[in-house]
Amino acid sequence: MRLSNSLPVLLHMICAPTTDNIERCAKVLRDGGVVGMPTETVYGLAASIHSEEGLARIFALKGRPADNPLIVHVASVDEACSLTDAEHHEVLRKVAAAWWPGPLTCVVPASAAVSMRVTAGLGTVAVRMPDHPVALALIQAVGSPVAAPSANRSGRPSPTTAQHVIDDLGNDVDVLDGGPCNVGVESTVVRLSSEHCTVLRPGGVSSDELQRVLGMPVEIASGAEDLRASPGTRYRHYAPSCSVVLCSTEDELRAMAVAAETSLMVLATHAIADLPECVVSALLSEATLYAELRRADDLQLGGILVLCDHTVQGRDALMNRLRKAASASEEHL
Ligand code: AMP
Ligand code: MG
Question: Is the Cα torsion angle 111, 117, 121, 122 positive or negative in sign?
Fold first, then answer.
């Protein structure tokens, strides 16, 4: 039997990060396409910052609101400096010396050449150098910075394996397989000048560490003005389909598990005794959180109970993502 149309059938897939595949993916980006890219935080959906077509595809594939700007990933400090005017280079070099490559994203005023699709018209650009050899090799092969938000459909937990990207975006992209992400939650996003540092999103680098290394007071963003400064923090985020409930003690969690009329996952940093049978227990950490939220959905569980004792409450990035997952499920109860 002959196929009636002669268009080539393009099969997208998970690719081993060989030199050939990295070169091929770099060409896809230069030609206006998008590719799934591993980083140490979460998998990104990459497009060249010089391709309006590629940048537009990121928003279309993710279902991302157009007013949510993109993080730009670079392979050198000079590339980062090329995104902003000379007066901001010193602060970028200081950040790079202390944290790059690593999970710290710096928001600085954007130079006029940076696409409005990247800045969402805010006049600023968010930039970081990822600590992953495959990401760095891809950016170098493209020859210019790449914009890469997390490679999930908007509102879903971020992907921490190549398979998660395919689960969300289907066969619309090739994904370079860099293995499971080491950090597992998104980068810390800071707005930075020579005198001020404001954390817009907690992540892999803590505010204590920022304060110590920068030697300046570090503020945590809150309020309407800061939400405008970092639109991504406004949207429903990090949420599985089932409801997520945070408990502060083992007794509270056990009582809820016993009373529940639906199948549950219990997420805690350690095993908990005396849980009803049929509850799936899972280990809680930054690196495993998103994979476990996705597993609860795959198992079609009715809810997730999370033990947030005070060791967990002291972990800013983890608590931030858990609170978002829990408040998103309240909205959907
Ligand atoms: P993600 O979609 O996971 O890559 O998230 C990117 C985050 O960085 C979102 O919260 C964005 O709002 C934030 N972001 C990106 N660019 C900027 C910018 N220019 N100013 C402030 N926040 C930004
Ligand atoms: Mg995201």
Answer: negative
* Closest approach atom of ligand 1 to CA 44: 4
109 lines ligand 1 (CB under 6 A): no
Which residue from 10, 7, 12, 45 is spatially nearest to 29, judged by alpha carbons?
Answer: 45
Considering every ligand atom shown, identify the ligand nearest to the alpha carbon of residue 65 and give its number: 1
Q: pTM higher than 0.90 for the full model?
A: yes
Phi, psi (degrees; rounded to nearest 5) at 274: 60, 45
Ligand 1 pocket residue status of 168, Cβ below 6 Å: no
316 CA to centre of ligand 1 in angstroms: 18
Q: What angle do CA 91, 233, 56 make, to 5 degrees?
A: 85
- At the second CATH level, the architecture of 10-182 is Alpha-Beta Complex (3.90)
Ligand in nearest proximity to the CA of 189: 1
Inter-residue contact 80 to 102 (CB < 8 Å): no
Task: Name the maximum alpha-carbon separation found in the chain.
Answer: 71
Residue 155, ligand 1, Cβ within 6 A: no
Express each pLDDT in 252-279 by its tens digit: 999 999 999 889 999 999 999 999 987 8
- Helix 316-331 to helix 289-298 angle, to the nearest 10 degrees? 30
Q: What is the pLDDT of residues 143-188, one digit of tens each?
A: 999 999 999 998 889 999 999 999 999 877 999 999 999 999 999 9
Ligand 1: does its nearest atom lie under 6 Å from the Cβ of 235? no
pLDDT of residue 1: 42
122 lines ligand 1 (CB under 6 A): yes
Closest by CA position to 229, among listed 210, 201, 202: 201
* CATH 3.90.870.10 domain residues, the chain: 10-182
- The best mutation among 70, 153, 185 to test binding of ligand 1, ranked by most ligand atoms within 8 Å of the C-beta, falls on 70
